[in-house]
From TrEMBL, chain A:
PANTHER family: EXOSOME COMPLEX COMPONENT RRP42 (PTHR11097:SF8), EXOSOME COMPLEX EXONUCLEASE RIBOSOMAL RNA PROCESSING PROTEIN (PTHR11097). Belongs to the RNase PH family. GO terms for biological process: exonucleolytic trimming to generate mature 3'-end of 5.8S rRNA from tricistronic rRNA transcript (SSU-rRNA, 5.8S rRNA, LSU-rRNA); nuclear mRNA surveillance; nuclear polyadenylation-dependent rRNA catabolic process; rRNA catabolic process; TRAMP-dependent tRNA surveillance pathway; U1 snRNA 3'-end processing; U4 snRNA 3'-end processing; U5 snRNA 3'-end processing. GO terms for molecular function: mRNA 3'-UTR AU-rich region binding. One of its GO terms (cellular component) is nucleolus. It comes from the Eukaryota. This is Ribosomal RNA-processing protein 42. The lineage of its organism: Eukaryota, Fungi, Dikarya, Ascomycota, Pezizomycotina. Coiled coil: none annotated. Its main location: cytoplasm. The keyword Mitochondrion does not apply. Keywords: Cytoplasm, Exosome.
TrEMBL record, chain B:
Residues 13-144 form the Exoribonuclease phosphorolytic domain. Keywords: Cytoplasm, Exosome. Belongs to the RNase PH family. PANTHER family: EXOSOME COMPLEX COMPONENT (PTHR11953), EXOSOME COMPLEX COMPONENT RRP41 (PTHR11953:SF0). One of its GO terms (cellular component) is nuclear exosome (RNase complex). Pfam families: RNase_PH. GO terms for biological process: exonucleolytic trimming to generate mature 3'-end of 5.8S rRNA from tricistronic rRNA transcript (SSU-rRNA, 5.8S rRNA, LSU-rRNA); nuclear mRNA surveillance of mRNA 3'-end processing; nuclear polyadenylation-dependent CUT catabolic process; nuclear-transcribed mRNA catabolic process, 3'-5' exonucleolytic nonsense-mediated decay; poly(A)-dependent snoRNA 3'-end processing; rRNA catabolic process; termination of RNA polymerase II transcription, exosome-dependent; TRAMP-dependent tRNA surveillance pathway. This is Ribosomal RNA-processing protein 41.
Length: 323, 245
């Protein structure tokens, strides 16, 4: 099911036509690759290792808290990969505010192939699944977040990432969730280990937060991943689509990328299909996507979004306590 | 005898209260954010609107409903509280009953006012912070109430002076450490009228101490009212000025 819109068929058709023009005209007069403004705060929860709050005009508000707990390494010799992936636990909670009730089963951003696994009554449409996927994939050249979670021999951090969506009725975009998780991860600090690395006794930590260790070192790469929705209508590609634009789109993708250098270049770590509306055609008359367009969409994300992610990262560091 | 508490406050000092109105960009009719020390709470209010379910319709007044969510990361340890958790239910009932009696519900027959509260960080006085946040959000939503509903906690220190006959002062606005250590209560008043609309206490305390604790709690409520009133006026003025331009 594509996200519901209040638009009527003639309105959709009008929107479709104006978006397929060359150059296209978006309803809010943005350029095709322009993002909408956001409000972003981080590191404001005292009980969390990292936290963030993101507000977007249409998608609403989202709060993420990251907590790390010390856990004994139970990884067996053979099932390492699967067991290591349990070191990170993501849960997405959708607030069932008042009249609307808990999520009506519409997945977050309608991302396909990740549905339902995380529990019916949370209505997150498996957002936790694709968020985690991006996080685990997030790194080129053998770099993995899981390696950062190793404390010492036999001990590791267990990372709990709790996403709280405060918008029960509006349409939460994957951009909202991933931006919030990205910022929270970027502001996550762990206490510094004071016991030796190679001993398997219970590790001890310094209680001085001024010398705590960042999960993602701000000066190194890759940075935390970010998932961007992108849609195409005709040959036009649009970043950060609004709900109405998604409803009028022909194809939609969620591209997960991560920053790989200070100049703003990015690596792709994941691409998923995103459910969109009927794109000007009749119901059930899906045109499919050709390779050239697919490439164009992914390229648009990689070339245009680097700067946005970089900007978000800079904003995060400016707000951090050690500024 | 006067000493300092573990966070450096005197017995009659509140923690820093920071409040904000209209914090949410979402479709809620009113929203607020309050920090009382490290206790941080967000509140959204929707309504008066058509009730979400028929059973909630009252023919002569509005229904007040309340939902409280503890964020899993709100405490020192990560605890996920479900919707049927006892503590959550208790908070919901307390808040709902309090506001049901203070909101002028007879003005909105057959409608529902829903309060949804998110607790982001807990450091003592959770119920008090929830009620203060709900008051601000209800004001933001423009829902008529007889006055501010203000809540504050007070605890009774069990110090050594107890045995010597000198009565130790009750502590105003206890934090998490104090709350887990000494008996404390939450007082909710309407405005600064000293009229109590809710009182909650979960520990044992000597009966002769109770009076003093309530008195200190009430004086705390009056101060909380002042702080909230100041913020509401500031926000209102700012809003009017913005509209005037």
């Amino acid at each position: 099911m594509p996200p519901p819109t209040p638009l009527s068929p003639p309105e959709l058709s009008y929107l479709f036509t104006s978006l397929s023009l060359s150059p296209p005209i978006r309803p809010d007069l943005r350029a095709a690759t322009q993002f909408r403004p956001i409000i972003a705060e981080c590191s404001f929860l005292p009980h969390c290792n990292g936290s963030s709050r993101i507000c977007m005009t249409e998608a609403g508000e989202c709060i993420v808290g990251i907590k790390a707990e010390v856990e004994k390494d139970t990884t067996s010799k053979y099932a390492t990969v699967v067991e290591r992936e349990k070191w990170i636990e993501i849960s997405v909670e959708v607030a069932g505010g008042g009249a609307s009730g808990p999520g009506s089963g519409v997945g977050v951003g309608g991302i396909s192939g990740a549905g339902g696994a995380a529990g019916r009554d949370e209505g997150d449409g498996g957002a936790a699944v694709w968020l985690k996927e991006g996080l685990l994939a997030g790194g080129a050249a053998g770099w993995s977040i899981l390696d950062q979670l190793v404390i010492s021999k036999g001990w590791h951090w267990k990372l709990y990432i709790d996403v709280l969506l405060l918008t029960p009725t509006s349409h939460p975009s994957p951009l909202l969730l991933s931006t919030a998780v990205n910022m929270a991860l970027d502001s996550t600090y762990m206490p510094k280990l004071t016991s030796p690395h190679d001993v398997d006794d219970i590790p001890t930590f310094s209680d001085d937060w001024a010398i705590s260790v960042p999960l993602y070192d701000p000066s190194s790469f890759p940075r935390p991943p970010m998932s961007l929705p992108v849609i195409a209508i005709g040959d036009n590609v649009f970043l950060d689509p609004s709900v109405a634009e998604v409803a009028a789109a022909e194809v939609g993708l969620v591209v997960t990328i991560t920053l790989t250098d200070s100049a703003g270049s990015c690596d792709i770590v994941g691409v998923r299909g995103m459910e969109v509306g009927r794109g000007g055609g009749k119901e059930g008359e899906r045109k499919g996507i050709n390779r050239k367009l697919l490439r164009k969409m992914v390229t648009a994300c990689v070339t245009e979004a680097g700067e946005v992610i970089k900007g978000l990262g800079e904003a995060t560091h400016k707000q951090m306590f050690r500024a | 005898m006067e000493g300092l508490r573990n966070d450096g406050r005197r017995w009659n000092e509140l923690r820093r209260i920071h409040c904000q109105l209209s914090t949410s960009s979402t479709n809620a009719d009113g929203s607020s954010y309050i920090e009382q020390g490290f206790t941080k709470v967000i509140c959204n209010v929707t309504g008066p609107a058509e009730p979400s379910n028929r059973q909630r319709v009252k023919q002569d007044s509005a229904t007040v409903s309340c939902e409280v969510y503890f964020a899993a990361f709100s405490g020192t340890d990560r605890i996920k509280r479900g919707r049927n958790d006892k503590k959550v239910q208790e908070l919901q009932t307390a808040i709902q009953k309090t506001f049901d009696s203070v909101i002028l519900t007879h003005l909105f027959a057959r409608s529902e006012i829903s309060i949804s509260i998110h607790i982001l960080s807990q450091d003592g006085g959770t119920l008090a912070a929830c009620i203060n946040a709900a008051t601000l959000a209800l004001i933001d939503a423009g829902i008529p109430m007889s006055d501010y509903v203000c809540a504050c906690t007070a605890g009774q220190s069990t110090s050594i002076f107890d045995q010597e006959g000198a009565s130790p002062d009750p502590w105003l606005d206890v934090n998490y450490l104090e709350e887990s250590d000494i008996p404390s209560l939450t007082v909710v008043t309407v405005g600064d009228s000293e009229k109590i609309v809710a009182l909650s206490m979960e520990n044992k305390v000597r009966i002769e101490r109770l009076e003093a604790m309530i008195a200190v709690g009430i004086s705390g409520c009056a101060r909380v009212r002042g702080i909230m009133d100041k913020e509401v006026r500031r926000y209102g003025k700012e809003k009017l000025e913005a509209e005037g331009e």
